[in-house]
Structure formats: structure tokens, C-alpha cells
TrEMBL record:
Keyword Cell inner membrane: no
Gene3D superfamilies hit by this protein: Acetylglutamate kinase-like
Pfam families for this protein: AA_kinase (PF00696)
Role this protein plays: Catalyzes the transfer of a phosphate group to glutamate to form L-glutamate 5-phosphate.
Protein name: Glutamate 5-kinase
Catalytic activity: L-glutamate + ATP = L-glutamyl 5-phosphate + ADP
Enzyme Commission designation: 2.7.2.11
Residue ranges occupied by any Aspartate/glutamate/uridylate kinase domain in the UniProt entry: 12-242
A GO molecular-function annotation: ATP binding
Taxonomic source organism: Clostridium ragsdalei P11
PANTHER family associated with the record: GLUTAMATE 5-KINASE, ISOPENTENYL PHOSPHATE KINASE
Compartment(s): Cytoplasm
One GO term of the biological process aspect: L-proline biosynthetic process
Record lineage: Bacteria, Bacillati, Bacillota, Clostridia, Eubacteriales
Length: 266
């Protein structure tokens, strides 16, 4: 049994997080082909008997593109307005494609208070349990339309790790615009090497995350390492992989050497 098979073979609960850079094309429109491919793979997981939660970014990005803005707004009110517009467009797109596969989806919008306050946390956990029990695929995003800085997660990498912890997931998959964690920033260092497996998150591993950012996303490799810390300390393995690669999720659950695996702690 190889190391990937050890952590992935019996995974029953899977959280998939899709970044903005995977969902939006270079010309600023929704990448419908990529969304359809991700939806197809999530349906494949569920048809294999797995419970799946999708954490999706992109609401603010879709909203400001719909408004015809060329740069992402920095003002919190403008971001909230963009999120309110983009959230509906994004969910409608997902719902339409999932329904073509005979799947039911449910939208869950969260703020930090929903997972920090005990009663709210319990309610959120119960909602996920009820939905997954009925074969519904929850689609989660931060509730950017109402959240202010004090109650924001800050990025959906962190949110996805907390969701994985909440539902006691077995594996968290972060899909981004990079193949995984490199020994250094591959955009500035052509000799950077892809790290296939991280048994333990050390200072050296954290240093590898510096300098990688997306033009349309809200974070970079740093936020993914932070998410990995939350996941692995909760007994959940995590994989960072490139969302633009066809069948990437299927390859991951088939134990192929894709992306970077962070091994769960006992």
C-alpha cells in the first residue's frame, strides 16, 4: 500500500474547495467548461458512495465582472454588493449543471460567527448532517454580502478546512491554479520542485509558501498552508492540486501522484 492509498482508500467524506482562479477565465468570464468538469467529478464521487461538500469561491469575482468593473473593489461595501450579485449567478450555474446529473444542491452561506459560537456551530453541523444523509450536495461560501472584517474568515481555504473539521471529513481537496506546493515560487524560480507529500508541516514547508498569489483570488499558498494546519491537526488529510487539470479529483481518489498530499495527524 503506497502512502496515498493509506490516506485516500477508505475516504467517505470529502470536501472540495474551488478557487476563483479556477472558475474565471483570463478574459474575466465564468469558465463553464471547468465548472461542468468539476461538477461531473463531484457527481462521480457521490455515485461512488461518498458524501461531498463543495466550498466555492468566485461570488465577488463574478459580481464585479457582471458590473463591468475591471479591477476588484477594495471597499468593503463594494465587495458586499458584488458578492450579493455574484452569489446568485454562481449558485444558479451550479444548480443547473448539477440538476443535469440528477443531483440536488443546497446553498450554505457562513460567517465566522457561525462556527465560533457554540449554538451556531451545532446548528451548522446538524444542517450538514441532514443534507448529506439525504444525498444533497451542500455548496458553501462565505456570506460576503453581510460579513464585515470582524466576522470574516478572510479566505475560503480557511473556511474549507473548518468545514472539513465540522463534518469530520476524511479528505480536503483544494483546487487552485497551481499544481501543488513547490520548494520555492515556480513563477520566479525555474528550478522549483513540486513536493509530492508533506508528512509534517515544518518551518521549511511554511517558507515554501511565500510569494505565490493569484490575480483574481484572495489568497495564495500561504492560506493553503494555514488550511493544511487546521485539517491535519483534526485528523484530515489535505491535497492541493490544479483545478484546470481534467479528471483531477478522480485521479486524486484513485491514488495517483497528483498535487501535494499533507498527511493527517493521528
Amino acid at each position: 500500500m503506497n502512502i496515498r492509498e493509506k490516506y485516500l482508500k477508505d475516504a467517505k467524506k470529502v470536501v472540495v474547495k474551488v478557487g476563483t482562479s479556477t472558475l474565471i477565465t483570463e478574459d474575466g468570464s465564468l469558465d463553464l467548461y471547468r465548472i461542468e468538469e468539476i461538477v461531473r467529478q463531484i457527481c462521480y464521487l457521490q455515485n461512488q458512495g461518498k458524501s461531498v461538500v463543495l466550498v466555492t469561491s468566485g461570488a465577488i469575482g463574478v459580481g464585479f465582472l457582471k458590473l463591468g468593473l475591471k479591477t476588484k473593489p477594495k471597499d468593503i461595501c463594494e465587495k458586499q454588493a458584488a458578492a450579493a450579485i455574484g452569489q446568485g449567478i454562481l449558485l444558479n450555474t451550479y444548480e443547473k449543471i448539477f440538476s443535469e446529473h440528477g443531483k440536488i444542491v443546497a446553498q450554505i452561506l457562513l460567517t465566522k460567527n457561525d462556527l465560533d459560537i457554540v449554538d451556531n456551530y451545532t446548528n451548522a453541523q446538524n444542517t450538514f448532517t441532514a443534507l448529506l444523509k439525504r444525498g444533497v450536495i451542500p455548496i458553501v461560501n462565505e456570506n460576503d454580502a453581510v460579513a464585515v472584517e470582524e466576522i470574516k474568515f478572510g479566505d475560503n481555504d480557511t473556511l474549507s478546512a473548518l468545514i472539513a473539521k465540522t463534518i469530520h471529513a476524511d479528505i480536503l481537496i483544494l483546487l487552485s491554479d497551481i499544481d501543488g506546493l513547490y520548494s520555492s515560487d515556480p513563477q520566479s524560480n525555474k528550478d522549483a520542485k513540486l513536493i509530492s507529500c508533506v508528512p509534517k508541516i515544518t518551518k521549511e514547508i511554511e517558507d515554501c509558501s511565500k510569494g505565490s498569489h493569484s490575480s483574481v483570488g484572495t489568497g495564495g499558498m500561504y492560506t493553503k498552508i494555514r488550511a493544511a494546519k487546521i485539517a491535519v491537526s483534526s485528523g484530515i488529510s489535505m491535497i492541493i492540486a490544479n483545478g484546470s487539470q481534467d479528471a483531477v479529483i478522480e485521479d486524486i481518489v484513485s491514488n495517483k501522484e497528483v498535487g501535494t498530499l499533507f498527511e493527517a495527524e493521528k
